[in-house]
Specification:
Chain lengths: 500, 319
């Protein structure tokens, strides 16, 4: 690693951070020059977001040192970090939509005397921040919610610039932008760089990183595994550094052979994101869906499951009762869905494991609408033991379990129902490695038992290790479906980013 | 072992509150003589009936993640409808059915608007609060509706101060409380109410017909409110369209004091009943202490805040 010496705008040395038994950061080192765009690259779970939280003051590092322009930097809170010169722009917009653009820019840093807002000074400061971005003509009195998403992002960046930051962190800034808006954002970034602001740019989109960043640092499993000049490295080299791990141990193969077609999707579309998707799913097949976040993978699963309305096209579940226009009818057809969003959609956190596990089939636990609680708990207890869910017993509220154990219960709901077709959206997101391996094993066994499984995942080694067939989605279209043996990570990335 | 102790404490929280309140009123010289007697508690139970029956319906609604502000008006409407039926010479059974039906109708309206128009329960029921109250005044011709006599009149009476029998209203409230508690705990409908309130997205994902369920919950709760109107009528012995103004707040307070969460998914019938009793005991005790009514209002207001705060502390320690 080239040492920038005292010239570095930001220097991180040996940053470590653990949450309980999970080592999120195992020793990250990083140097950024003034006026440089520096890409932080890594897979999901590599430690990018933890690193950004440590930098922005939301978390405190367990070990390691940070220096900002040669001075020790240990922010106590995001506000403290901002005041010391490190500002952050989050992936989701953080605007008060009903307030005006000006009020949003000055939020938390209003110019006021004795509590009265000084309108003139406020206006000048907001204008000055916008001028840095080349948007000095923006209508400051309009409510923030009435602007386009791209302009809202400009407002958000202007807010970050108000405190004259030395380092600006941008977390996946283009994930909700169109191509043209992305180009405009890049122009803004270049402008800030020329004014001496250092930018830490985090993105999944490798092409983007190559285009905008001067230098890069690659994280893997919480460690720095590579750093250098963007111009001296190829896309494939980056991918190899990001993912270079032995995958065969984690994905035990269970013998299974694809059989009869169970599900057929023809030209399925659902506004606004899902444009067109056709595929066939066979019994005993594990079908992987790859693609960038927002490419329509989740939308496809939700439309198949009738959670989102189907605008055109046709979904056919074979050998099943008629219907399928509501999630309830899909369950009746033997289709099960696992939400990517465990806390907000997948589970009822205040209710017991037993209630969560059997919600789709409460009626079968008794007569005339009365539930036999003992039988319901006994059934849940069996799954708790089978899947080694760590808990007191099946009547414990599920909100008290760890993410991995919650996910096992969420999956057990599909197993208990029982489903024939498993639609799994990010089945291993945010869970520990042990639970991951267990879920991979389980998925393999399902296929072995003749069930059909669709797995959506952003984690490519997982798809390549687990699936028989992989389809890649790009901008709402399911574009390429091939057997696993014909895919590599680089190839999936090329198709997913539309650069093939 | 420790978990069991914690569980007992969580379940017993409102009950301990009730014991504390009763103990407090048993100490002063002014109330010591009479407060802790059977006859006083007979009065307290009778005074709790209307709020308690309302709280049964409200517990279902709040556990499902909703709220109903139209209860007070529904009760007034139901009592006016009942008085009109009795005045017109209909039998007791028909009049009772009409009262329950009128409450159920307002509930059905609430549920259909909330689920069908996808609007927040607060807004819809704020609207029906006005609609039901206005309708009550309209059909009562803006005055009280009087009738000769009816068997209903004895259902809430504590007239015989030396009798030991509890009035019908108390038994009805008690029976319904047990029934509702069982339904919420042990039936598919009851568990779906909890599921809906805990996480509507999950309920939908698991194939529960959430729209139909919501309508059913509000309509059923409305029937409870109609029944509460019946006992309002039995107590007043005339149909008064201006009665029970603001009673919805007492009912909501009872449910909240009883440990339910306004964000849904949490709550018990036992807790709500104890909550209703706590408020009745406070009113009764304050009256015997000779405190003015405004003082009672302040106390009950503070009790709500303390109860929810204590609940939060308990929840916080759990995790």
């Amino acid at each position: 690693m080239t040492d920038l010496g005292p010239a570095a705008a930001l220097r991180l040395t040996g940053i470590k951070k653990s949450f309980g038994a999970t080592h999120a950061l195992r020793g990250v080192s990083l140097q950024i020059a003034p006026g440089e765009v520096h890409a932080i690259i890594g897979e999901n779970g590599a430690g990018k977001s933890t690193l950004m939280k440590v930098l922005s003051g939301a978390h405190t590092a367990d070990e390691g040192t940070m220096e900002l322009a040669g001075n020790a930097f240990a922010p106590a809170s995001p506000h403290d970090a901002r005041m010391k010169g490190v500002a952050m722009i989050y992936q989701e917009l953080n605007l008060a939509f009903h307030l005006s653009a000006q009020e949003n820019i000055l939020l938390g840093a209003e110019s006021a005397s004795l509590g009265w807002v000084d309108r003139k000074v406020s206006r000048e400061r907001a204008r000055a921040a916008l001028a840095l971005l080349g948007h000095e003509h923006l209508d400051l009195d309009r409510p923030a919610g009435s602007f386009t998403i791209a302009t809202q992002q400009v407002i958000e960046i202007a807010r970050a610039l108000l405190t004259n930051p030395k380092v600006l962190i941008m977390d996946e800034p283009t994930s909700s932008l169109t191509q043209a808006d992305t180009e405009r954002l890049f122009a803004t970034i270049a402008r800030l760089r020329d004014q001496g602001v250092s930018i830490l740019y985090i993105s999944h989109f490798l092409e983007e990183c190559r285009k905008i960043a001067d230098r890069y640092t690659i994280l893997k499993d919480g460690e720095t595994v590579g750093t250098g000049n963007m111009s001296e490295v190829s896309l494939d080299q980056i991918v190899t550094l990001m993912t270079g791990r032995e995958v065969k141990d984690l994905y035990p193969r269970v013998e299974h052979k694809p059989g009869a077609v169970l599900l057929e999707a023809k030209e399925v579309a659902s506004a606004p994101r899902l444009k067109r998707a056709s595929f066939q799913l066979r019994a005993g097949e594990i079908f992987g869906l790859a693609g960038l976040i927002g490419a329509g993978r989740t939308d496809l699963l939700r439309t198949l499951f009738s959670l989102d309305r189907i605008d055109s096209g046709d979904v056919c579940i074979l050998n099943a009762p008629e219907g399928g226009s509501t999630p309830g009818e899909r369950w009746a057809q033997g289709v099960g869905f696992l939400s990517e969003n465990r806390k907000e959609e997948g589970l009822m956190l205040t209710l017991s494991i037993a209630d969560n596990l059997t919600l789709t089939k409460h009626a079968s636990f008794g007569r005339f609408g009365w539930i036999d609680g003992r039988r319901q708990r006994a059934v849940a207890q069996r799954w708790v033991e089978d899947l080694r869910v760590k808990c007191r017993d099946a009547s414990q509220p599920i909100g008290q379990l760890s993410g991995g154990n919650q996910q096992k219960v969420a999956l057990a709901r599909l197993l208990e129902h029982p489903a024939r077709i498993f639609l799994l959206d990010e089945p291993t997101r945010g869970i520990d490695v042990g639970s991951k391996a267990q879920i991979y094993q389980l998925i393999g066994e399902l296929a072995g038992a003749g069930k059909a499984v669709v797995v959506v995942s952003s984690y490519l080694p997982e798809l390549l290790g687990l699936c028989d067939t992989i389809g890649v989605m790009c901008r709402g279209e399911l574009s390429a479906i091939r057997p696993r043996s014909e895919w590599t990570e680089a190839e999936i990335m090329r198709v997913a980013t539309g650069s093939a | 072992m420790k978990d069991t102790a914690k569980l007992v404490l969580t379940q017993a929280g409102p009950f301990l509150g009730l014991l504390v309140v009763i103990a407090l009123f048993s100490i002063p010289i002014e109330t010591r003589e009479f407060f802790l007697t059977y006859h006083n508690f007979k009065t307290i139970f009778t005074q709790t009936v209307i709020v308690a029956i309302g709280a049964l319906g409200m517990t279902m609604i709040i556990v499902s993640g909703g709220i109903d502000l139209s209860v007070g008006s529904s009760i007034a409407l139901s009592s006016v409808v009942g008085a009109l039926f009795i005045q017109a010479g209909w039998g007791t059974a028909t009049s009772v059915a009409a009262m329950i039906f009128s409450g159920g109708l307002i509930g059905l309206l609430n549920g259909a608007a909330i689920a069908g128009l996808r609007m927040t329960p607060f807004i819809i029921t704020l609207g029906t609060l006005g609609v039901a109250r206005g309708t009550a005044k309209w059909i009562a011709d803006n005055q009280t509706v009087n009738y000769e006599t009816s068997p209903l009149n004895t259902w809430m009476t504590t007239a015989d101060p030396f009798g030991y029998a509890l009035p019908t209203g108390v038994w009805v409230a008690l029976g319904l409380a047990v029934l509702t508690a069982l339904v919420l705990r042990n039936t598919v409908f009851g568990r779906h109410v909890f599921a809906l309130g805990s996480n509507e997205a999950t309920a939908r994902l698991c194939g529960i017909p959430t729209t139909r369920l919501k309508i059913l919950i509000y309509a059923l709760a409305g029937c409870f409110f109609g029944l509460a109107g019946l006992f309002q009528l039995a107590r007043l012995r005339q149909g008064d369209p201006t009665v029970a103004v603001g009673l919805e707040l007492d009912i909501i307070a009872a449910v909240i004091i009883g440990g339910a969460s306004l964000s849904g998914g949490v709550g018990t019938i036992l807790g709500s009943m104890i909550g209703a009793l706590i408020m009745a005991v406070l009113r009764n005790g304050s009256q015997q202490m000779g405190w003015p009514t405004y003082f009672q209002e302040i106390i009950i207001g503070l009790v709500i805040i303390v109860a929810v705060f204590v609940d939060r502390l308990r929840q916080g320690r759990q995790t």
